[in-house]
Amino acid sequence: MFNLKTLCLISTFLFCSIFYANARPEWFVPPPLDPSGVVLETVKLHDGVFALMSNTPFADNSGFVVGDDAVLVIDAHFTGNMGKQIIDAVKKVTDLPIKYLVNLNAFGDHVFGNYVFPESTEIIAHEKTIDFLKENSLQKRKEIISVTVGGSTELFRDVVDRLPTESFKTKKKLNLGNKIVELYYFGPGMSPSDTVVYVPDARAAWTGNLIFGKGSIPWARSEIVSDYLKSMKNFQRKIDPKIIVAGHGQISDGDIVEKYISYLDYVLEFSRSLKKEDISIEEYVKTLNIPPEYLIEDDIKELMEGFHKWNVLNSYKQVTTSTSQLKDRKNLGQKVARDGKVVK
């Protein structure tokens, strides 16, 4: 069995390989998420259902849902100023209180704006999101996300830590007053805790980092590709949105779900085929391009090419690892992430 020193080393390795910037390949350019100068445009999707869309490619989007009694906001954005911009957008539509704020994952660009929302606002997140936020200091989380804004944490200088107060496991239903909102966890995707907010009467879904915007592909940043595929199939079985508001990128229709499933399946099959080749996978992925059938928006093409290389590299390492090793690594990682220790 593992001794304490070994467990500490494994824990450190797992954490760094999943979250820290220096684990990324040297050729990879992080997503450009700097909110400086970003303006959120209010887009009405349905009665009481609004997207807040960034005017800058791949900067964070948000949104809110208005019922007869209360408002629910999706994501708090990157800074206090961006959080206030969301609050101001809500006030232009309704005087009703913001009763709920949902954080779609644990990354700073989704949670750092929490602190400017009213004290009465209940902040909800998946249990894995809350675990990560509790187990890692605000400073550490600032450092993790700083690679998306040029490497400095100065942008987050005024951020005050405010954690979600309520968790859910797989599904949660909220009634805003004749307006139902559903929260789902379909499984790991880009991150371990990707959450989806779904408004059934509008058939509109906010997908955070699980599904990016129109003309995109997935990014298996910190998760096993086959698990991401399972999560997408679970998504497809449980809900059928006609409108998808991604955490990053343009609004898309529901067809993107099948596109993501097709792409992830392709990456796994392609990676299996590479097992027969005598290659250095780290060098080989540098030569790859996204297959032309997966149409990519011009303004995110370079970013998506990096995602594709990352996905193949990640998938190749998965398919060349034995099932038992993969299971042990995954189980240990989940255990360490949950409570910081492994029980014999």
- Write the element-wise H/E pattern from the N-terminal end onward: HEEEEHEHEHHEEEEEHEEHHHH
What is the strand arrangement across the widest sheet? 1-2-3-4-5-6-7
Query: What is the CATH C-level name?
Result: Alpha Beta
Runs in which pLDDT lies below 50 for 5 or more consecutive residues are 1-22, 332-344
Structure in words:
There is one protein chain. The chain has 344 residues and is of the alpha/beta class. The protein has a single domain (31-271), classed as Ribonuclease Z/Hydroxyacylglutathione hydrolase-like (Metallo-beta-lactamase, Chain A, 4-Layer Sandwich), CATH 3.60.15.10. Helices cover 36% and strands 18% of the residues. The protein is built from 10 helices and 13 strands. Strands 1-2-3-4-5-6-7 form a 7-stranded mixed beta sheet. A 6-stranded mixed beta sheet has the order 8-9-10-11-12-13, with no helix packed on it. Helix 6 (225-238) runs antiparallel to helix 7 (255-274). The relative contact order is 0.13. The model is unreliable at 1-22 and 332-344 (pLDDT under 50).
SSE map:
Elements: H1 4-19, E1 40-46, E2 49-54, E3 62-66, E4 71-74, H2 80-91, E5 98-103, H3 108-111, E6 122-126, H4 127-135, H5 138-145, E7 166-168, E8 171-175, E9 180-184, E10 196-199, E11 204-208, H6 225-238, E12 243-246, E13 252-253, H7 255-274, H8 281-284, H9 301-319, H10 323-339
Parallel strand pairs: 4-5, 5-6, 6-7, 11-12
Antiparallel strand pairs: 1-2, 2-3, 3-4, 8-9, 9-10, 10-11, 12-13
